[in-house]
Amino acid sequence: MKIKARPFLKWAGGKTQLIPELISRFPKTIIKSKKINRYIEPFVGAGALFFYVRNNFSVKRSFLFDSNKELILAYKTIQKTPYKVITELEKLEREYLKKHEAGRAKKYYEMRASYNIQRDTVNYEKYSYRWVKRTAWMIFLNRTCFNGLFRLNSKGGFNVPQGRYKNPTICDRDNINAVSKALRDTEIFCDDFTACKKYATKGSLVYFDPPYRPLNGTSSFTAYTEDGFTDDDQKRLALLYRDLSKRKKVHLILSNSDPKNIIPTDTFFDDLYKKFTIERATAIRIINCQSTKRGAVKELIITNR
Ligand SMILES: C[S@@+](CC[C@H](N)C(=O)[O-])C[C@H]1O[C@@H](n2cnc3c(N)ncnc32)[C@H](O)[C@@H]1O
Predict the structure, then answer these.
(1) 204 and 154 in one domain?
(2) Per-residue pLDDT tens digits for 84-127
(3) N or C: the chain end with fewer CB closer than 10 Å?
(4) What is the residue range of 110's domain?
């Protein structure tokens, strides 16, 4: 039985629950033929939609971008040497799971410190065995940290506290292998989203999932990278969207939080994308990160149909 690839990291803003809404807005020709010539994600994150698409459509080539260099390093390493990542991660898993509470906490904070210290000596441009270790460490921290967040502080350090899971799956060997296979025929870039411009040629399907515009003053989770994502970045993105929409047969889908959830008169995205089809879908999200309150909110889905 073929194992279906799933995101190998838990990622803030992951789009698993929005997949049916997104797929239903794919061009009819693609839904019918189940074929995509070029699939492009300029903000790939954990890639929920990318993996779904790879499992369910025949995709000729894919192009993935994200400005988070740790994430991209992990993607490239799993693409190239999944078996080495599995070996490292299984070692960590064995070591961690055999410890009791205090031992696990000690291990977690040691790993977190090593991960942050190593950052200054990693060559992010050139693959080496360090990439393998770093990828395993990143997955380990993601699986054992509080809420599976990957949050960086202003200095670029990973600063999430330990999570108390009894029996976390740290190494999902089958999935890492499936992810590596899904990443065949895929080019992966650590870059700003605008870099996708030169790849969005005729027959491309581009899915934009930028960091959320904060729903209110306290729930701002835009710090995936050291530099956040501002309203000016949202405007840069809208410019790119308009630009690409002028190209022949380039299909664009963009999702974002709907500011009207909080301020009914906030027309920020309605104004930016007024020439396009703007629809609203329901999602369940943490609506206030200070508490962990979940609730139904509207997500915007914008297409150039
Ligand atoms: C909402 S998340 C994407 C989540 C993804 N769709 C998923 O299912 O996991 C947004 C992503 O944009 C990335 N990002 C932030 N600023 C960026 C930029 N200027 N260019 C490209 N990626 C950026 C973040 O690192 C983050 O991974």
Answers:
(1) no
(2) 999 999 999 999 999 999 999 999 999 999 999 999 999 999 99
(3) N
(4) 72-175
Q: Tokens 């709907």 correspond to what residue?
A: 258
How many angstroms is it from 251 CA to the middle of ligand 1? 19
Confidence (pLDDT) at 249: 94
Burial of 69 (0-12, 13-18, 19+ CB in 10 A): middle
Residue 21: other Cβ atoms inside 10 A = 18
CATH number for the domain that contains residue 290? 3.40.50.150
Task: Supply the pTM of this predicted model.
Answer: 0.93
Q: How would residue 138 be classed by pLDDT, with cut points 50, 70 and 90?
A: very high
Q: Is 257 in the pocket of ligand 1 (CB under 6 A)?
A: no
Q: CA dihedral defined by 86, 92, 93, 95, rounded to 10 degrees?
A: 150
Ligand 1: residue whose CA is nearest its atom 7: 14
DSSP-assigned beta bridge partners for residue 279: 301
* 6 CB near ligand 1 (under 6 Å): no
- How far away, in angstroms, is 211 Cα from ligand 1 center? 6
* Cβ neighbours for 257, distance < 8 A, ≥ 6 positions apart: 212, 213, 215, 285, 297, 299, 300
Are both 231 and 293 inside the same structural domain?
yes
H or E element in which residue 51 lies? helix 48-56
